[in-house]
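hi! just following up on the protien thing from before. the input was this:
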Amino acid sequence: MPIKACVFDAYGTLFDVAAAARIAAAEPEHAKLAAIWPQLAEIWRTKQLQYTWLRAITGDYTDFWQVTQDGLDFAMAALSLEGEAEMRERLLALYWELQAYEEVPEMLAKLKEQGFITAILSNGSPDMLNGAVQSAGLEELLDDVLSVDSVGIFKPSAEVYDLVGEKLGVAPSEVLFISSNGWDAAGACGYGFQTVWVNRAGDPMDNLPAKPNFELDDLALIPDLAAR
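and the predicted 3d structure came back as:
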C-alpha cells in the first residue's frame, strides 16, 4: 500500500541530543565541559535509553523528563561532575530547546507539500516534545505529536506503535517510520511499519529479528522514499 503518513522519532532523529552539552561547553562558566562534552553527551544518552528499556521491562513507568534527569546524573557522576548544580540545571534547561538537524525544516515542508501526514512518535513527555517543536519552529510542519505518556510504557512496546493507527487513522503498511535508533527502526519494522534507520554515526546494524527497510545518513531523502 502507498505511504500516507511519515512518522518520526524525536530525539536523535529530528532533534540533536548532543546540542545541550555542546552549547553548555561553549559557555565560559562551564569550561569544565570544554574537553569532555562529547563523553557527557554520549553517556547521558546511553543511560537515558537504558533506563527506558529497563522500566519497560519492569513496568516501572515514569515520564521521560525523570529518565532524562536520571541519565544526566549518572553521566555527571561518571565524569566527576556531581557537585556542579548550576551546570546540571543549565544542561537540563537546554534539553528543552534542542536544535533540529539542519535538513529537518525543508524535509518536513516537502512532505507536507506532497500531501503526507507528518507526526512524531516519541518516548518524550508531551511538555518536552512541545518545547522542542516550538523551539525549532516546526509547529506548522507537523500534524500530530504522539507521546508514550498516553500508554505508560516506552518503545519498542507494540502499545506505543499502536498509537499511530489509533491517532492518525492509517494502517501499519501505510506508515513510513523514521528513527535514528537502530533498535527502534527494527522494532517498528517488526510491528509492520515500513522503516528508515537514520544512521548518522555510521554504526553497524543491530542484530535483531527485524531489519529496517532503508538506511540513510540523514533525513534529506525521506520525501523521495515516501513517494516511491
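Residues 130 and 145 are 8 Å apart (CA to CA).
The chain has two domains: 5-15+98-227, 19-95.
cheers
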